[in-house]
Amino acid sequence: MSEQNKILVINAGSSSIKFQLFNAINNDKQPHFTILCKGLVERIAIKNSNFIIEIANGDNFIKHEVTKDIADHVIGAQTVIDALIEYKVINNFDDIKRIGHRMVHGGQKFNNSIVIDEKVIAGIKACIPLAPLHNPPALKGLSSFQKLVPHAKHVAVFDTSFHSTIPEEKYLYSVPYDWYKTYEVRRYGFHGTSYRYILDKLTNILNKPKDKINAIICHLGNGASICAIKNGKSFNTSMGLTPLDGLIMGSRSGIIDPSIHGYMCNVKAEATIETITNDLNKSSGLLGISGHSSDLRDVLASSNDKNHKYHLQSQLAIKMFVQRIANYIVQYGNDLDSNIDALVFTAGIGENSAIIRQLVIEEIKVFTLKLVTNKNNDKYNDYLEISDKQSEVPIFKIRTNEELMICQDTYNLLKNI
Ligand code: ADP
């Protein structure tokens, strides 16, 4: 007999709650997860909040959308639960016994996903100085669902925990050692849930045990990072103390000379550490260089349109974006002793932009990498190998699924409730 269990996955941001509801069907101890619905509450506490729920219907989803004012995260969470009942995805609140939450920063405290109790909440709160933009809204999401579904058990899944295996010489910054010892200044890395998912996928695709896999994974979304995986473990990654480090992103600068901060505070009228940090997070990257947009699709369009006001800046933004990725791939190739089982492109840009994949590969000169143009351009569902046989490293585009990973962790940690 098969046992069915619903698992709700929550990703709460400052003005949004993304959710997915899975069903775990446990046949012969091998759980199989199917998605029942997904959706999003956006513009929380901003006028004209939007609620979207998409209900699974075979291979497709039926979408429902409502615009109404949603004043805070508790009302957002209530909207989610009410809709699950209204659209008959669940019968009542009691159907939800397990909720998994995406937490961005677990600092040095959390090396694995964990069942949430008061001590864990205190630990996540203690990490707020490391992730002031991310941990507070995730905690708000957690407390909202705790309030509304008091009988449910909750699990925290951290973006940072996958990177706890990075060796000391790679996670330390060359700053006074006391900054690390006293203030925990070090590289933490993010997107770990996506990297774990891709690594699991690679074990199947390559038919190789996880602990034998060496790979370079490019998670290129609005936020973007790269990870070198050595023997199935994170060995290096481009994001650092915060998600601002590393690659050029939608609106984040990535790595810069650290003295730019102080210099700008001195020369720009009314600039403070906070305003400059804000500019580096929200007005830099593709947006900052192109002057046009943080969305790669917009920047590609303006870079291709000679008459566009930001044509040349957009071309420059793409060139810089691609070169930075290529340079990290080369560096990580060296970290992996050129012994690389797979180079993977994933997330919004990595999964969908054939031109960015092509430009990155063309930019790499120290390895012989070759794409098959048709395969690079082809539609696909789950993953596709896109390299030619002559390529020194097999190259893949793989669709990531962080929510499924959170669902699996939640299921595994709460198996016996
Ligand atoms: P995040 O989760 O970090 O917000 P996503 O992984 O959703 O970001 O990626 C968003 C980025 O993916 C945007 O820059 C968007 O332009 C890009 N993107 C999405 N679809 C495509 C596509 N078909 N072609 C090119 N870029 C795309």
Automatic annotation (TrEMBL):
<comment type="similarity">
    <text>Belongs to the acetokinase family.</text>
</comment>
<keyword id="KW-0418">Kinase</keyword>
<comment type="subunit">
    <text>Homodimer.</text>
</comment>
<keyword id="KW-0547">Nucleotide-binding</keyword>
<dbReference type="InterPro" id="IPR023865">
    <property type="entry name" value="Aliphatic_acid_kinase_CS"/>
</dbReference>
<feature type="binding site">
    <location>
        <begin position="295"/>
        <end position="297"/>
    </location>
    <ligand>
        <name>ATP</name>
    </ligand>
</feature>
<keyword id="KW-0460">Magnesium</keyword>
<feature type="site" description="Transition state stabilizer">
    <location>
        <position position="191"/>
    </location>
</feature>
<dbReference type="Pfam" id="PF00871">
    <property type="entry name" value="Acetate_kinase"/>
</dbReference>
<feature type="binding site">
    <location>
        <begin position="219"/>
        <end position="223"/>
    </location>
    <ligand>
        <name>ATP</name>
    </ligand>
</feature>
<protein>
    <recommendedName>
        <fullName>Acetate kinase</fullName>
        <ecNumber>2.7.2.1</ecNumber>
    </recommendedName>
</protein>
<comment type="function">
    <text>Catalyzes the formation of acetyl phosphate from acetate and ATP. Can also catalyze the reverse reaction.</text>
</comment>
<feature type="binding site">
    <location>
        <position position="11"/>
    </location>
    <ligand>
        <name>Mg(2+)</name>
    </ligand>
</feature>
<keyword id="KW-0963">Cytoplasm</keyword>
<feature type="binding site">
    <location>
        <begin position="348"/>
        <end position="352"/>
    </location>
    <ligand>
        <name>ATP</name>
    </ligand>
</feature>
<feature type="site" description="Transition state stabilizer">
    <location>
        <position position="252"/>
    </location>
</feature>
<dbReference type="InterPro" id="IPR000890">
    <property type="entry name" value="Aliphatic_acid_kin_short-chain"/>
</dbReference>
<dbReference type="InterPro" id="IPR043129">
    <property type="entry name" value="ATPase_NBD"/>
</dbReference>
<feature type="active site" description="Proton donor/acceptor">
    <location>
        <position position="159"/>
    </location>
</feature>
<comment type="pathway">
    <text>Metabolic intermediate biosynthesis; acetyl-CoA biosynthesis; acetyl-CoA from acetate: step 1/2.</text>
</comment>
<keyword id="KW-0067">ATP-binding</keyword>
<keyword id="KW-0479">Metal-binding</keyword>
<feature type="binding site">
    <location>
        <position position="102"/>
    </location>
    <ligand>
        <name>substrate</name>
    </ligand>
</feature>
<keyword id="KW-0808">Transferase</keyword>
<feature type="binding site">
    <location>
        <position position="402"/>
    </location>
    <ligand>
        <name>Mg(2+)</name>
    </ligand>
</feature>
<dbReference type="InterPro" id="IPR004372">
    <property type="entry name" value="Ac/propionate_kinase"/>
</dbReference>
<feature type="binding site">
    <location>
        <position position="18"/>
    </location>
    <ligand>
        <name>ATP</name>
    </ligand>
</feature>
<dbReference type="GO" id="GO:0016301">
    <property type="term" value="F:kinase activity"/>
</dbReference>
